[in-house]
Amino acid sequence: MTATAASPGSTGADGRAERFARPVLLAFLLVAAADLAGLLAGAETVHLVAKPLLMPLLAGYAALRGAPRLLVAALLFGWGGDVFLLADNDLAFLVGMGSFAVGHVCYLTLFGRGEGRGRAPAPLVTGAGYAVVLVVFLVLIWPDLPADLRIPLTGYSLLLTAMAWRAGVFGPYAAAGGALFLLSDALIATGIAEWPQAPAPDFWVMLTYIAAQALLTLGVLTKHKTKHKPGA
Asked: Would the CA dihedral through 174, 183, 37, 52 be positive or negative?
């Protein structure tokens, strides 16, 4: 993901905003690297400091690049989810999941608007594939989930799967972001179900999550900028 530099002749607020976008993106990448390195090193304090900074920085970058407000909102609701999930209790988990769910509604609304502006609809065959994966995963994991989390996690999974499918409306970057978001949350669910985990499971959760949000942002920005190019 690269920031679009302001053209030599650009003036006004838009030009100034574009010039600030690159350092904000760099800050996001540095914080992401620090967070992932902290998780690998077992430095919990680094993760506690870095994780809440990620989505505000990415949202700031998106806003400076002139992103749709729904993208910025989705990222900020993701930030809410990040913060609540830092607490290790069921109530905070449910509130955090709810914040992520609102973010997915923002994404779905944005993708729906994109589909209505000349972009190809999300392929039905892809949706069918996602549906099969979701059903198989839920059938396998259901017995191992805590009883009080089964229904909330199922509802959330349906919403997330719909978002991942519809993300393809904004091109391959967004489609990959949606798929990685689904993978990241599936890794969280397997942890809740106490399935066998890969070494450093939190690292893989955050790696796929950060990549997902970054790719969703890149996909939306790429299509949004192309649409607004002069003569496009």
From this structure: positive
